[in-house]
Amino acid sequence: MNSQLSAVVAGAGIGGLTAAACLLQKGFKVRVYEQAEVLGEVGAGIQTSANAVKVLYALGLRDELEKFAVRPQAFEFRRFDSGEVMHRIALGEQHESAHGAPYYHLHRADLHALLARTVRELDPDCIHLNAKVESFEESADGVTLKLADGARIQGDVLIGADGIKSVIRSQILGQTPVSYTGDIAWRAVVAVERLPKNIMQRISTVWCGPKKHAVMYYLRSGSLMNFVGLVEHGQPENESWTQKRPWQELKADFEGWHPTIQTVIDAIDKDSCYRYALNNRPPVSNWSTPRATLLGDSAHPTLPYMASGAVMAIEDSAVLARCLQERTSVPEALQRYQRNRIERTARIVNESTDSRGLYRIEDEDEMRKAFEQRNLAKSRAQWLYSYDALHVPLI
Ligand SMILES: Cc1cc2nc3c(=O)[nH]c(=O)nc-3n(C[C@H](O)[C@H](O)[C@H](O)COP(=O)(O)OP(=O)(O)OC[C@H]3O[C@@H](n4cnc5c(N)ncnc54)[C@H](O)[C@@H]3O)c2cc1C
C-alpha cells in the first residue's frame, strides 16, 4: 500500500503538476509548494508528442485536451528563403497509429490550467502558492523542506521540479556549468484572424537558415499562431520568459526571410514580443540523494530545438510514480527512477543541442544532404516518440 507515503514537490510548473497528479492518482499524499502568488503559464505554445500525451491520457485528460489541442499533420523543415521542404516528419494519423497517441500543439496556459485543475480535483489542498522554497534537510527517516517564510514541511520524499534555476538542484549538485548558447529565443502569438486565410496548413514549420531558425504552428483549436525565432546574438541577456523587446528588433532579425514569415511577424502585436537567452547545461550523471530527487528542467534542462523539454518532464513524472509505487525503500526508488531516466534525458539534451547546427547550415545543398543523412523522421520515430513511460520495463 502506498497511501502512507508523503511526497513534497517544489514548483508547480508543467513538471511539478504532472508529477503531483501521477502520485495522487496512485494514492500518495502530495503537497506542492510554488513561489508564485497566482498559478499560471506564459502565453506560448508547447508541442507534445505521443510519448507525453499517453501520460496525460492516463490522467484522464483526453476529452479536455481535445477541446483545445491542434493535431498537426506534419513537421516540415523548410529553407528560410525559398520555402523548399528539406525534410518532413509525418504526424497526424501516422503518428497516432504508430505510437498510440496523437501529437498535439497546446497553449501552455491551457495545459497548465488543466493540470492544476486535475491536481485540485484529486486533492483540493495539494497546491500551496506564495511558498518560496529555500532549501531542504534530510535524515534516514524523511525530508524537511524549508520555505522563505520560515515554514518547515515534512515528507518522506522531496521532488525538486523548480525549473532551470532550481534551488533543490543547487543543493544536490552544487554549482554545475552554465554557458550561453549564443542564441536568444523570440516568442509571440498572433490571432489567426489577423493573418490571411490558410497562410499555413496545420503543420509545425521549422524555417531553417544561416545563424537562425524560426518555428511556427497553430494553437488553441487553430485560433492562434505560435511564433518562436531562435537567433544568434553576441550578447547574452536575461534567461527570463517575460522580458519584452521592441518588435522592430524581431523584424530586423528576420529581414530577407520568406514572405510567410514576414506576414506573421507583421501581424504580431508590437507590444508583445518576448526575448529569452538560451543557456547550455550539460547532462549530469546523478540527480538524487536518498530522500530528494529532481524532475523536468531542474534535472535535465533542455534547449527547445526538439520541442521535448516538457515532454521529458511528463515522462519523468510517470516513471517516478511507478518507481515509488513499486519501491522497497525511498532511496532505492529514487536510484531506480534516475537509472531509468538519465540516459534517455541526456540523449534529448545532447541531440537538441546538436540540432541547432543542422537547422543553420548555410549552403542549401549541404543542408539538403545533412537532412537526408540524419533522417529525423526515422530516428525520432524509433527512439523518441515510441517510448511508453507507463509500461516500459524498468531496470
Ligand atoms: C522557447 C521555448 C520553447 C519550448 N517549446 C517546447 C515544446 O514545444 N515542447 C516541450 O516539450 N518543451 C518545450 N520547451 C521546454 C519546456 O518549456 C520546459 O522543459 C518545461 O517548461 C519544464 O517544465 P518544469 O516544470 O520542469 O519547469 P518550469 O516550467 O520552469 O516550472 C518550474 C516551476 O517552479 C517554480 N519555482 C522555481 N523556483 C522556485 C522556488 N524556489 N520555490 C518554489 N517554486 C519555485 C516556478 O515558479 C515554476 O512554476 C520550450 C522551451 C523554450 C524556452
What are the key terms here?
single chain, 395 residues, alpha/beta, FAD/NAD(P)-binding domain, five-stranded parallel beta sheet, 17 strands, 25% strand, binds flavin-adenine dinucleotide
Bin the helical content.
Answer: 25-40%
* Count of domain modules: 1
Give the overall silhouette: globular
Q: What is the CATH topology classification name?
A: FAD/NAD(P)-binding domain
Q: Runs with pLDDT <50, length 5+?
A: none
CATH evolutionary superfamily = FAD/NAD(P)-binding domain
Number of strands: 17
Q: What's the level 1 CATH class?
A: Alpha Beta
Cα distance, first to last residue? 22 Å
Please tell me the overall pLDDT.
96
Instruction: Output the helix-strand order.
Output: EHEEHHEEHEHEEEEEHEEEEHHEEHHHH
* Contiguous helical run count: 12
Tell me about the biggest sheet? 7 strands, mixed
Strand order of the largest sheet: 5-4-13-14-15-12-16
What structural class do the secondary elements suggest?
alpha/beta
Strand content: 15-25%
How would you describe this protein?
The chain is α/β, with parallel strands linked by helices and 395 residues long. It has a single domain, classed as FAD/NAD(P)-binding domain (3-Layer(bba) Sandwich), CATH 3.50.50. It contains twelve helices and 17 strands. Strands 5-4-13-14-15-12-16 form a seven-stranded mixed beta sheet, sandwiched between helices. It has a five-stranded parallel beta sheet with strand order 7-2-1-11-17, with helices on both faces. α1 packs parallel to α5. The structure holds flavin-adenine dinucleotide (FAD). The site of flavin-adenine dinucleotide has 33 residues, from α1, β3, β12 and α9.
